[in-house]
From TrEMBL:
Name of the protein in question: Aspartate carbamoyltransferase
Pfam families in alphabetical order: OTCace, OTCace_N
Lineage: Bacteria, Pseudomonadati, Pseudomonadota, Alphaproteobacteria, Rhodobacterales
Organism this protein belongs to: Pseudosulfitobacter pseudonitzschiae
Entry EC no(s): 2.1.3.2
Gene Ontology CC annotation, any one: cytosol
Broad enzyme group: transferase
Binding site for L-aspartate: K81, R164, R218
The entry's keywords: Pyrimidine biosynthesis, Transferase
Amino acid sequence: HRHLLGIEPLAPSDITSLLDLADDYVTLNRTAKHSDVLAGLTQINMFFENSTRTQASFEIAGKRLGADVMNMAMQASSIKKGETLIDTAMTLNAMHPDLLVVRHPQSGAVDLLAQKVNCAVLNAGDGRHEHPTQALLDALTIRRAKGRLHRLSIAICGDIAHSRVARSNIMLLGKMENRIRLIAPPTLMPSGIEDFGVEVFDDMAEGLKDVDVVMMLRLQKERMDGGFIPSEREYYHRFGLDSEKLAHAKPDAIVMHPGPMNRGVEIDGTLADDINRSVIQEQVEMGVAVRMAAMDLLAQNLRTERNAA
Ligand code: CP
């Protein structure tokens, strides 16, 4: 692959190879913290939407692999003067970057940009479409906690309708032959989602029954376009994860959240901090390793392509 734009085009073997390499990078990160596989390459991070985890981990990942990393401050860029996304991308392309990491509020914007530039593009989240490195880091977290990434029963709960994390996870976990249960109020469940081979629930007790993994999602009010916004109190009562609701899952079920989380809205803060159940901090750690693996693999392909030209 030239780019990492989504989970959709990946084969199960691509996913397994990337996770195997990411496992090696977990070990590197816990010991030496440095390699030179991206030495001589330039990585530009362009975030048109806020980020803590994704932006910081892409920057750390690039630096640990020896790349020259530049973070574009999009709020201070000429986008503010009316320059378009494509003109901005073409301007940066003329400076010969090798890896472009892009987050954008519009679904499809990163794919469009990838068609215009000569380097490898990594999608760091586009609108409601995809967030592939999030799904890959979730997969690595699950594989390390459960010892496998197939034939697990996994619940994804909350604001499915607005979530690129849910979309990428549904695709990845489905490709790896897991049983996926989606739990959300009907207003936050996309219509026709059953076509993706998932089971749909609007009750936490039913949906969480005997699952191995519980993945909570943030209520994304910024994407609700003035439509239905549930009351936080009512939402927490029916769909917020606490230890009482978690008791319906398997006794060793793990609790995940991609972050940023709203404590007391979709998840109880004490449960989120319970290291016996919650793997939220491991997810963040896996984020660096997965992004190192993704950039390493794309750089290998880029070098092969350039050597052949
Ligand atoms: N999970 C995630 O994408 O977090 P950020 O928005 O902080 O990058």
